[in-house]
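URGENT: need a sanity check before tomorrow's submission.

F., can you look over the Thiazole synthase record below? I want to be sure the sequence and structure line up before it goes out.
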Amino acid sequence: MTSQDIFGDDTLVIAGTRYRSRLLTGTGKFKDLDETRRATEAAAAEIVTVAIRRTNIGQDPGEPNLLDVLPPDRYTILPNTAGCYTADEAVRTLRLARELLDGRKLVKLEVLGDQKTLYPDVVQTLKAAELLVADGFDVMVYTSDDPILAKQLEEIGCVAVMPLAAPIGSGLGIQNKWSLLEIVDNAKVPIIVDAGVGTASDAAVAMELGCDGVLMNTAIAGAREPVLMAHAMKLAVEAGRAAFRAGRIPRKRFASASSPIDGLVG
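Structure tokens as predicted:
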């Protein structure tokens, strides 16, 4: 019996494409490209995000190319705008990425507002999202955990909204359960937690809340054993998703016997 026989078709759909994995991974901060490859394989990720301003995917012919270890015919390469602080910077960066990736439209938008916390500049994010959607991009967008803003980004036409769970790279875990629940409950596009995950239990919690996926980089690349942590994150995302679909029992103040006492002899 296969997992599909047990769980049915539970694929993640983004911009019309189906993905078996709900774990998206980054490609930065690893010690070398071989570790990047091994961790990505251990995570069973199908979508990998790439910082165009920091990673060579062909713009520097003499340098090692990420696409040699993570080929686009096997992975969905998701260019992102890490390091951009204005809408104009972000739009220019993603137009370059589109040229480098033979016209692929799926991108991850992030416009930062502060170098210390890496919190998003939501005004510039909205502006960039409008420009990119109008230019034909399929935009996955990093944002704060504001439910109103998340809905506005969806209405602009973003194909996925990616609220932070805690500051980028902090490893603090899910700090905003109620905000995430509100975003999930009102969304008609995938909601993918982006930033703040530190360990496997954090990823499981995000999925148990009903999020459609989790994107992480530092939690894997910064672990003592990145490849092993990638495997742990894969299992956590799968477990959290299964638990969400199964439906947890209600919380109660008092005990409830595992074995019913009704009908006991004597």
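My own read: The CA atoms of residues 214 and 246 lie 19 Å apart. Strands lie at 12-14, 17-19, 23-26, 47-51, 76-80, 106-109, 138-143, 160-163, 192-194, 213-216. If you see anything odd, call me.
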